[in-house]
Known about the structure:
By secondary structure, the protein is of the alpha/beta class. It contains 23 helices and 13 strands.
Amino acid sequence: LEKTIRRFGLGYSPREQGLLYRHLKELGFKDSLIQESGLLPGLRRGEYFDRFSGRVVFPIFNAMGKVIGFGGRSIDGSNPKYVNSPENPVYTKGKNLYGLNVARNSGAKALIVVEGYMDVISLHQSGIINTVASLGTALTEAQGKLLKQYAQEVVIAYDADAAGQAATIRGLDLLSEMGCSVRVLQIPKGKDPDDYIRTSGPESFRELVKKADVLLEYKIKLLREGSDTGTPEGKVRFLNGVAELLAKLKNRLELEVYVKKFARDYGISEEAIFEEVYKRTGPERSPARLRKVAKSNLERRKAGSIKEEKGEENKRIVHDERFIIAILCMDNDVYQELKGHIDPGSFIDDENRKILAAVIERIESGRGIDPAGVMDLASEEMAGELAAIINKECPCDDNRKAILDRLKNIELLKLESRRRELLDLLKDSSNLKEGDVEKLTKELNTLLLKRKNLQFHFSGKEGGTYEE
């Protein structure tokens, strides 16, 4: 408790009026400046009265740790429960986040945003120090810039009533438009983070964080809660609302992934969803194109994955491709070191190519991505394999070397597969045209030399390279 009091500078303002005024005058402050601070808003019975008299006081620090304002909480049940500093030349609540001066040093990739001082303090006491409060405002652009500066991901942990309010959703949309990766943590109704921590403990809260919905899925849940999908009319309204949300997605890959997931989760055909999205996005996404995509997805499901179609070597290649994706989503920074060697186009599995492209886009845009985010984009089969890889094969002592080793292994497996194809062709040369034998033999010799000399050279922070 004492550590928490010191960390947050908690204090108490005595009930005796005039103490603060006399103290500030002794320090040499002029009446005009004292008034401008908002600490002593006016006269009462001929004496300046203290705005926070009889209250526990919470100093509000900026990101650099300088006090810019105060909040006061009543301890005798009197109203209002909270009193805050008015905005002044050094304090604008929409430009600051309570607790950021501590949370910015947490080392976590995500910042958890709650509503009040006590939520922040309770979570910090429980060891969850990557927590800030929005100071009672709907999130603003200035707060979004702060969040984006110090975190790859933002997890909103408002209580159940506040999380669904229109002003809150507008704030979350603003964060998303700014390039923040936003997820929404759903706290059981009737509880705020402080209540939940006290009754259920920090580990239970951490589980809620892990299960937090990405913003789009959270909006879809709100839509479903407000729709009677048991009736045809309600289901149509629900589908229309979802189509409105999906139509705002700018990334075609993201659209296809979410349509597939939504269709599976809610029992609506992909074709129907694509058609409704098209109505809202214009001719650049033609119905024929969308139907073709839906048909392709259906055929791929019927045909099975590439692992089932192409032998043991391809199974190993697909697994190594997914290992690389798993490492990248656990350690976004390693991508910058190896970006010259990680190309979605070189992957043999269709879904792996799409997911890797999405991972790279999220990392390069500054939004970042974690394992939960990747699994939300993946099919059920791929998500299961990624989870198994993360649990059984990670973490690695050296993520950079681990990726380079798998890239080398993939290249060797591809060379071996082509070697066998060439040998099979050369075994029955009677079907080959004149000159083809010489051409194939030359390719085989080049391939064998390439396989022999394939090796990776590690060159410090510049990233790995390999020579052939």
